[in-house]
């Protein structure tokens, strides 16, 4: 029986060395999860009864279990490098259509603009609107935006201005430019439409507002009036509809709301505090970033930033029940359970760090110590065989 015990020990030690060697070989593999060998004793049932056992039969490998502890996160300069900080996996669609999962976030962009792994598997995520709100719960292959973002015609203009309460009431001959400001709006083709606003005090707490479009004379415009209460707060005329025109064709008219509700009149010099409008010209993609919620944010040459999807994450009730294939891909099994789908930072899911990669969680020092310990175990089992052989030889040589 000693031979069986020793052979079982040799096999177990050999298997352990295989696993340790695999861990060491992948110490530099992105998001690799180390494994450990779990042993179990083996006994033979005694013939005298089912509740008693004879001597031990040695050892067996009961399981090679992966360890899903967090690996260190290492910064990179690639926007498509993603590290998971916490629980979860990226969901992939393999080239053959099969579903797989990974922690390795070293993604690339393929010729069609899709975000893929080195093996061509697509990273899956949620579609979103330009503000980043999900538009569907059905996952799709994520892609990097290409081409241009189209122009948007101005529909709203907002001004925050402080008017001088001590300004003199104007006369018809006064220069309108004394209290004025301007902003740039855009027509449907993204062409700049210059809008000027001119303020003329007509009475205590009352002002006329003249306008110009694309350099027209403001005196030819029809003014509207804004009024203030005794505390200097606007009480009328705060929102107006302005008729703008394209710089290429004055007959191409479009309306835009002018919001002056944040105007104040106080004993202070004329001050323009803020000017905003919601139109823009067409723009080319200049930068892509991914925030900690997994939302892809595309920045364009017209200073517009728009969401282009959200990275999905999945987790399992029993990650150690996952099956594993080459290239660090896992697949679901009956033991792992169904994937639980969500997004970074939600519920049980960890966050995502862009321009970073999770390192292997292999502890090289511990692995080398384990290797030496396992080597000693192998040598000890070999010594058991050698000793048993010597005992048998002694018996054979008895006369």
UniProtKB/TrEMBL annotation:
One of its GO terms (cellular component) is bacterial-type flagellum basal body. The keyword Magnesium does not apply. InterPro entries: Falgellar_hook_FlgE_sf, Flagellar_FlgE/F/G, Flg_bb/hook_C_dom, FlgE/F/G-like, FlgE_D2, LlgE_F_G-like_D1. Residues 353-398 form the Flagellar basal-body/hook protein C-terminal domain. It comes from Pseudacidovorax intermedius. The keyword Kinase does not apply. It comes from the Bacteria. A flexible structure which links the flagellar filament to the drive apparatus in the basal body. Keywords: Bacterial flagellum, Cell projection, Cilium, Flagellum. It is found in: Bacterial flagellum basal body. Residues 83-146 form the Flagellar hook protein FlgE/F/G-like D1 domain. This is Flagellar hook protein FlgE.
């Amino acid at each position: 029986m000693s031979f069986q015990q020793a052979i079982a020990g040799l096999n177990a030690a050999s298997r352990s060395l295989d696993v340790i060697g695999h861990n060491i070989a992948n110490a530099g593999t992105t998001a690799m999860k180390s494994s450990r060998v779990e042993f179990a004793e083996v006994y033979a049932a005694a013939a005298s009864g089912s509740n008693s056992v004879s001597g031990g039969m040695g050892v067996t490998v009961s399981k090679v279990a992966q360890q899903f502890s967090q690996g260190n996160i290492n910064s990179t300069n690639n926007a498509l490098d993603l590290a998971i900080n916490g629980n979860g996996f990226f969901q992939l669609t393999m080239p053959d259509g099969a579903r797989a999962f990974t922690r390795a976030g070293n993604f690339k962009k393929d010729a069609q603009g899709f975000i893929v792994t080195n093996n061509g598997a697509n990273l899956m995520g949620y579609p979103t609107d330009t503000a980043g709100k999900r538009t569907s719960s059905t996952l799709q292959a994520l892609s990097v935006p290409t081409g241009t973002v189209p122009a948007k015609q101005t529909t709203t203009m907002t001004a925050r201005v402080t008017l001088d309460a001590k300004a003199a009431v104007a006369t018809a001959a006064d220069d309108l430019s004394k209290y004025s400001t301007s902003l740039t709006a855009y027509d449907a083709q993204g062409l700049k439409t210059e809008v000027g606003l001119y303020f003329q005090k007509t009475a205590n707490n009352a002002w006329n507002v003249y306008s110009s479009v694309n350099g027209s004379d403001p005196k030819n415009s029809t003014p509207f009036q804004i009024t203030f209460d005794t505390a200097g707060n606007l009480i009328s005329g705060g929102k107006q509809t302005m008729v703008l025109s394209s710089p290429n064709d004055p007959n191409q008219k479009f309306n835009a709301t002018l919001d002056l509700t944040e105007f104040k009149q106080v004993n202070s010099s004329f001050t323009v505090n803020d000017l905003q409008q919601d139109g823009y010209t067409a723009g080319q993609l200049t930068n892509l970033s991914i925030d900690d919620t997994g939302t892809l944010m595309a920045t364009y040459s017209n200073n517009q930033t728009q969401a282009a999807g959200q990275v999905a994450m999945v987790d399992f009730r029993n990650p150690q029940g996952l099956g594993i294939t080459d290239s660090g891909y896992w697949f679901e099994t009956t033991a792992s359970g169904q994937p639980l789908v969500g997004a970074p930072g939600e519920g049980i899911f960890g966050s995502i760090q862009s321009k970073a990669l999770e390192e292997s969680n292999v502890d090289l020092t511990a692995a080398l110590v384990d290797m030496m310990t396992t080597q000693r175990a192998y040598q000890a089992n070999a010594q058991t065989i050698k000793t048993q052989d010597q005992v048998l030889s002694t018996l054979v040589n008895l006369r």
